[in-house]
Prior knowledge:
Helix content is 48%, strand content 11%. By secondary structure, the chain is α/β, with parallel strands linked by helices.
Amino acid sequence: MKHPHRLFLAFVMAIAVAIAPTLPLWSQSPQPTIPAAATSTGKSGTYATIPCATLTAAPATSSPSGQASSPFPAQTVEGKDYECGYLTVPEQHSQPQGNTIQVGIVRLKSTNPKPAEPLLLFQGGPGGSSIDLFPGFFLPHSENSLKLLSERDLIVFEKRGNRYSKPYLDCPEYKEDDIHLDAAALAETLKGLKVCRDRLVNAGVNLAAFNSVESAHDVAALVQALGYKQVNLYGVSYGTELAQDVLRLHPDIVRSVILDGVVPNEPSVDAQYAVILDRLITEVDAACAQDADCHARYPDVKGTFEATYKRLNQTPGSTRLATGQGIEQQPVTGLNMAHTIFNLSYGSGAPFIIPALIYQASEGNFTMITHARYLSHSGGVAAGTYYSVKCSEDIAYSKALVTAGVAPFAKEWGGMMLNFMQDACQVWNVPAVPAAMRNAVVSKTPALVLNGQFDPITPPPFGARVARGFQTSTNVIFPDRGHGAIGSLCTTSLMAAFVAQPTKPLDTRCASEGKIKFITEKNTLMAPGTIWLTRSLAELNFFPLIQRVILLVLLILFPLVWLVLWFIGRARHQASEQAQPAVSRAAASRGARLAPWLGVLLALLSVLWIGLQLFGMESSVFLNTPNFFLGFYRLSVGIDRSFAWIYCVPIAIALASLGMAWVAVIAWKNHYWDQRRRYYYAFTAGVAIAYTGFLALAGQLTVFFG
């Protein structure tokens, strides 16, 4: 080979491309405009239908882009499928001549021309929007929704103070911080809460009037205004507390009640934070231990959690997040980890990822925790409503944390949660509701009680406790669900059968059909490349990713660039090629014709590899997972094992790259083509070798040998 330095130069150029610097990436979304709170005046105790666009026209319902959003699915028709209205009621029912407020109402219309008693729907929070939630569950009509809508109207009740009621007790000044849990950060959060309180009070809002007692009277006023004698009630989470208050204050209007994720009366949820976290970790540990594959992968979930919790509190880890203020380095403490697991468990199927999250964190890998931080910033709760209810009803009667029999980590986390709520309620400063509202409900009204086995905030023991107060009750536990059972065909079928005949025994076998799933070696290929990719993205480390993308693009472009160089070479008729001896020329001709096909093969393999990775990752999100969000977390560990075969492609790329590098040496020795093409061929071979090195570093060449 006459000029070995030229081959070396081509390889160096390829490596230089692989380490080219990249620009920082970030984005910032504008904040939606939040209207000031205001009271309204009008005739009390009346209901009037209005255009749904009027109900949902508040600026707070707009997306960050400024486009108004709608809670009603696009395939549905106003007037035919649903209608909207406002219920005008006194701000305080004890003062019927005083200020009035408006409560948003949506009626989802039955397909039956003579519908039975309606089912009223109460969302949780407190402060969560019923109108944002329930139309999406029951519209457009489906086998699921028609279980109920074929017999009766569903009336969506937007609690006073919530998003589609007036006034809307939102608090844009209040920035809840689940990351920085130190005293200074919590004090800053409370400062924002006080600013919100002062603004609402100065606008004339009586914060003491937005509790469940007044809302229960609102329900009674709605029933009367619509001309019903009795209605059925469904409440989820805090909605179960409101349903119980309706039973206490207006028992005659309730035909039946469904309580889903039950809030107990005493002791309050806030006093039991330590109990519920300890129970959650214990339940996940026990469920994993009963699953042979899970136990093999994660042999001691609770012990690992406790050890990691203690270590991270002593020596916090960190992760990087893109926020509205740019890229921030954020701490990961034991309290953070506990808080993340608690919040994740609201969604059904959370045990699927919790053991993997705990073991990742124990190894210093916080990818799943980072994903959870991004996905948790959803908002949607009216903070003013939340504190008016919590402070007057729960915290007012939460004097001490229940700690009997719980682990130290649960005591610490539970104490922090209760202490913050007590401090917040000192700021919010509303009077307690009468103590009688804390008494257990005792009722002859038939009740259906629904519980998720892994519910982090209202676990099954709470439901069982409340169910004892009903003369007729059916208590159903879903073994695979978290907070709230609504949405599944089984749940809707149970609800429909119950409200049709509330005193008839229910067939609840479908509830036990749900199976607990975990990320294990059996269903998930612990693919190093996928782990590397999701961790790089979670840590906002784009440089290695862009390196690989550049190399793949260069490989994919080879056929096009080679074709251009071939035309240039053909036009110039290189004299050096014509001067070769006949035998050498014939051999070179064969080699010169075949060698470029290695580059074409690499280009095809590169395209195939990109496509298969995207296909495998997308399919893994949906395949053998409880839901989309948990499938997304799964990518932090690997891909569905049924896609293991795609890792044959990196091996093929590595073999083709070695072949191309060898041919590049031969091409220079035998003077294949003109110099331009030899340089380019050697450069592409260097790119291929560099990319093969990245594949090796990411463990993508040894998946079948690990």
